[in-house]
Here is the input.
Amino acid sequence: MPYAQLLSDEQLELIRNNSNIVSYNKKDSVFRQSTRTSHIMLLASGLVKIFKEGRNERVVLLRMASPGEYIGMLSVMGDQIHQYSATAVETSEICFIDINAFRNVLMENGKFSLKLMSIISQDGLFIFNRLINQTHKQLPGRIADVLLYFADNIYGKSQFDFPLTRRELAELAGTTKESFIRTLTEFKHDKIIDLDGSHVRIISMDIVKTLSELG
Here is the structure.
């Protein structure tokens, strides 16, 4: 749990006694948009995608959640209804914490509450900045953003396997599947990346960063 060191032994025990771990297989739904919120959810292992469903089956992939991150906190703390959906991208374990027990801890522990507010704000700002970039950046810049997102935020290395389908990656970049594949292939031909199926190796991190910055 993030910032668990700020909690007293009694507060940690309260959370443990009001929590349970649920396992999910790949593609299992964690929660659906428009359903009621009921628990604080903390990803213990695996990877989860957070996405907004719109009209005509249009999907906006907002972000990925990796171990140690809260899921659905924007909705849980701001509304009684989930404003987006979450699905396991790979086998995952999620810790469900009773919302009333968690709120009791927040009311008792100001330092922990402030840190949680920081996490919620960072999540909101990340989504805000991503959507702005999708509007203002050209396609190469958006594809570069996706590469950097997985390299820096998710895996912490320049070589990884895409955990998403090409369609989902296109949703993350705010483009079509065909345009995403075409641009990724151009990156490969220009020797910016090495691509073998879902396996990616960023050859020139400097070029990828420049494309992202220039948009």
Residues 52 and 60 are 5 Å apart (CA to CA). The chain has two domains: 4-126, 137-214.
